[in-house]
C-alpha cells in the first residue's frame, strides 16, 4: 500500500482517494487472493476505507478556520492534531469492530486510548524507519532499521498490554455467522462511498447487522474434530464440557466463541455432566439426554435413552438415537448441533461436497451424517431422565 501511494506521489496523483485504496486491494488480491477471508485484510481495508471517507467528507474542516487568534492558539498547542487523532482512532476503531467480533469474539472499548498512545510512535518512528529500511536493503545497510522498527513495535505491544489491564477492557461477543458480517460490510461500503443522503442507508444496514449479531443462535452441542472433546449447553445456558485427552485448545475456542469468561481449567466446566467407566451423560436445555459412550457396552442403554450419542468408537448400526461416532467425524470434522424441536440442526466443518486443497477428501456419496443415523428419535422414545443415577 505504501508503494502504491509513493507511485501516486511520483506521478502527481492524489494519494488519499478511493482509487488508491482500490489499487492496493487489487494488488494484494493479485498476489494472495486467499487474503480476502483473513482478518488482517478485512480490518486493514475497512479501517482505511473509513479513514479516506472521513477525510473526504468530514475532516477537511480541521485544516481551515485558523484565522482567529483563538484558533491559532488551539493549533499552536496541537489541539487540532489531537482532535484529528481522536477522530481517526474512532473511525478506524469503529470500522474494524465487526471483524474483530467475528474472528476473535471480543471488542475493546478502550481502543481510542491505545491508538492515541501508539499512533504517534507509528507515525514518527515505526513507519519512517521502515521506509528507510526498504531504501537501505539494496545496499545491505538495513539491519539497524529493522532493530529500531522492532523497538517501536515493542512500544506498541507495551501500550496494548497496559490498556488491556484496565477494568472492563475486554468485551466478549458470542459467535455469529458470516451473514451479519457481510451485511455490515455492505453497509460500511454504502456509507463510505455514497455522497448523497442515501449513504445513511448504510448506517441502517449496519444497525440491522448488529441486531443479527446479538440475536445469533448458539449451538447446543459442540464436538471436536477428533471426537475427543464435547460441550453441552445445559439448563443454565452455559456450556458444560468433557474431554478425553489433555488438549484444551477446543475448550478455549468454544469458551471464546460463547462469550464465556471462564478458562479451560475452570472447575465449573464439568458441572452438568456425570461420568463412570463406560461413559458420560448430560442434559440439554430442554431436558433431553446426551450420552458420550466410551465402551461398546454403553451403546445398548445410550441408544435407547438418549437423543444423541457421541463416541470415539464405531457405533452399532441399529441405534434409535442420532449417532456421532468415529465414522461420522472422520468425514465431517468438527460439528455444532442446535436442538430444534425433536431434531438437530447440524453444521459440520466439512459438509457434503466440501472440497478444498487443505482439507481431506470427502467421499463423493458421503453426507455430513449417514442417512441411516440422521433420523431424529421418535417422540415416544424420548427417555425419562428424572430417575437417572450417576453413570447412567
The proportion of residues forming helix, as a percent range, comes to: 40-55%
Which structural class fits the helix and strand makeup? alpha+beta
Low-confidence stretches: 361-392
Extended strand count: 12
Shape: elongated
Instruction: Give the domain tally.
Output: 2
What can be said about the biggest beta sheet? 5 strands, antiparallel
Biggest sheet, spatial arrangement of strands: 5-4-3-11-12
Mean pLDDT: 82
The end-to-end distance, rounded to whole angstroms, is 61 Å
Number of helices in the DSSP assignment? 12
Please trace the helix and strand order, writing H or E for each element: HHHHHEHHEHHEEEHEEEHEEHEE
Radius of gyration using CA atoms only: 27 Å
Please state roughly what percent of the residues sit in beta strands, choosing from under 5%, 5-15%, 15-25%, 25-35%, 35-45% or over 45%. Answer: 5-15%
